[in-house]
Specification:
The complex is a heterodimer of chains A (about 180) and B (about 650). Chain A folds into two domains: about 5-80, Arc Repressor Mutant, subunit A (Orthogonal Bundle), CATH 1.10.10; about 95-180, Glutaredoxin, CATH 3.40.30. In chain A, about 50% of the residues lie in helices and about 10% in strands. Chain A contains seven helices and five strands. Chain A has helices at about 15-35, 45-55, 60-70, 75-80, 100-105, 110-120, 160-180, and strands at about 95-100, 125, 135-140, 150, 155. In chain A, strands 2-3-1-4-5 form a five-stranded mixed beta sheet, with helices on one face. In chain A, strand 2 and strand 3 form a beta hairpin. Chain A is globular and about 50 Å long. With about 650 residues, chain B is an alpha/beta fold. Chain B has five domains: about 30-135, Glutaredoxin (3-Layer(aba) Sandwich), CATH 3.40.30; about 160-365, Rossmann fold, CATH 3.40.50; about 375-460, Roll (Ubiquitin-like (UB roll)), CATH 3.10.20; about 465-555, NADH-ubiquinone oxidoreductase 51kDa subunit, iron-sulphur binding domain (de novo design (two linked rop proteins)), CATH 1.20.1440.230; about 565-640, Alpha-Beta Plaits, CATH 3.30.70.20. In chain B, helix 7 packs parallel to helix 11. The chains are: A alpha+beta (about 180), B alpha/beta (about 650). At the A-B interface, helix 2, helix 4, helix 5, helix 6 and helix 7 of A face helix 2, strand 10, strand 14 and helix 17 of B.
Chain lengths: ~180, ~650
Amino acid sequence: MSFPERENRKKPAGGEEEHHEEEQVKEKTREILRYCSNGRASLIPVLQQVQENLGYVPETAMVEVARRLGVPEVDVFSIVTFYNQFRLQPPGRRQVKVCMGTACHMKGGNIILDCWERRLGIGVDETTADREFSLERVACVGCCAMAPVTLINDAVHPKMTPTRVDGLLHAYQLEKQQEEGATP
Amino acid sequence: MAAGKDKNEIALNYRKLYQEARVGWQTLRQKPLVLVGTATCGRAAGALETLRVFQNEIARRNLDARAVEVGCLGHCYAEPLAVIYKEPFPPVVYGYVTEGMAARLVEDYLVNDDPCLEFALAALRPNPLLPAFADFPRGQYENKIILERCGLINPEEIGHYLARGGYGALAAALQAQPAEIIAAVKESGLRGRGGAGFPTGRKWELCREAPGSPKYVICNADEGDPGAFMDRTILESNPHSVLEGLIIAAYAVGAARAYIYVRAEYPLAVERLRTALEQAGNKGLVGENILGGDFDLEIEIFQGSGAFVCGEETALIASMEGNPGIPRHRPPFPVVSGLNGRPTVIDNVKTLAYIPPILNQGAQWFKETGTPESPGTAVFALAGKIVNTGLAEVPMGTTLRQVIFDVGSGIPGGKNFKAVQIGGPSGGCLPEDALDMPIDFDSLSGAGAMMGSGGMVVLDEDDCMVEIARFFLDFTQKESCGKCTFCRLGTKQMLNILERITRGQGKPEDIDLLLELAEDIKAGSLCGLGKTAPNPVLSTIRYFRAEYEAHIKERRCPALMCQDLIVYYILPEKCERSCDACVGGCPVEAIYTNEDRLKVIDQAKCVKCKSCLDACPPQYKAVIKLSPPEKLAEYNKGQGI
């Protein structure tokens, strides 16, 4: 992600589709920016809304935010990279978040993370090629009594075991097959 | 401040709100009432499904009863929890309420009159029918002040809070002078529950006296300690108690704007806070002319973005101002120069929740509980290898042993207690010998730990102390903001050494090097994160040095936890030929059947996931762990393989 070269970089390399996506990002970002007050204090709430809407914070959105709030682009980038919450890559349709709090760790959270990595074939902070799953580790989600836990999107799955990982994946596969079967 | 006319108006307005709520609550209580705990812990265990069954069954049978959502009672080990009020029976708490059980409770208890006591956990109040929580060992110690209403009122219904006398302290406070409130809080001796234990009344006074306006009050709900979930539970179970405390704090220091800084990882807490704020606004408890008086206050929710260091007050302020959360030098303290350079009070969720009860019942009453130096109660989050995981509120000065063995019912599975990790990444691990120490803000520091915000993770004989130290260092190293060299680079070096040790590549000089680095990091860091980051390592070396030495000298993990130092092995003499539970459990097909029709692990394929050990039926217990891995050869030789 190199901001200074932005102007020189050749525009939509990926053709029409990519250009279209970029326009959409711009439009959504402007929509969010319409209702916020000026200045640095709105920076984090605005970026949070961008991520909530788009799933991640793309470069185009960061530039728009910087311009509108009157904050240097580099400062926006510094916020997005400082805080763990912000994502620079689009997430998978199902975001698998493995809790790595103390209680989960002591009850085998790392074994569960290993399992997800092995089954999904990706590492932490990566997304599967079909964009179905992305894998993240999160600090304590406050469900220590149910350790070890995994969050899939917003649903908390308590007392995880390696076989439960397989079970959940199987359930999603079935669900996906049903969806595909329903809309041929 | 408030003129005589204003005072009357405030009292009248509050009286009206209270009576309205009271009528609503009594109507609710006239009929049978089912409360289902749907805080995050309950939801994880399926409480929403349970609630739906209760509601559907009640509707299907056309019963004159209600099922409503409440917060968390603190008995997280038995989630989903339900409380049923039905006259003439005492209110009964049921644990592990599955969907099937919910349906049965409706049929047997609500329709007929059998309270299904075989499912009951306990009654809420002492009664002749069944034991109450107070009759258990736990009840001897528990003293709920801020958790009193958690799990018994609907957090999304302001009426439930009002009907129990909620916002009464606010109404009284608004009729008094701010100085009187500060004096009352000072008199109570309340100390900040965020971990540092600074006297709250003193903080308010400093802020009130500091020049500059506007002034701000911030509620710090950035509960980042892994293993702590007290603030989340309070926000999800009784958000109005925190709001009330916050409004009183703002009135006392003379602030016109208040913020609640919540972790983004707590979506349900944020949602419930928003609802609470909106309802309080509609009732005239937040906003302009609160309760018809002349005090105005705007409250805003600010969501954190997942940086642990933002729990530190100057970093929290930096992040609210739109900067990376990097702490700065103190002084000036935030009470003099905080948000936007203005005087700012930052109080923890629990601290604010104590304010209404203190004002309602008086400073003297508060001081009767706890120790002279640390009055009141402490809320602990019990997690790890403990039977009763969940929340417990006990008086300050209760010993660790009482909390772990009487309140928490000890260690599950007949295992032996090894250590308790208290205070999160800033705290330390205390061994059995330290268990008789009474816990308050100051007592644990001599033993190398701290009470911190109250997260308690219990460890048993299967937990490796080097590994837990490595875990916390890994956490603080990732969360270090990078400002101070010693914290940024020192923790990285310590982590490298600990990783080496857990991999069996430790060197004899490593322990001394760790101790030396720890001192340097403590001395060379600006904020609490760096100053306390080495504590987990220091305390584990102090109490469990032998374990470090076993890792370094013998490449052996005594607790059989460090993955690189163990192998799994199936004892042929115990393996049962007709069983293949382990084969089905293995995710990588590492288990095969040998010519004797016994199961054997292919070490080259094994990923050490422990599935086989869990799958092996308890009557065989054939799967064991060996450390160091070289032991495997001995075992294989013994079998003549």
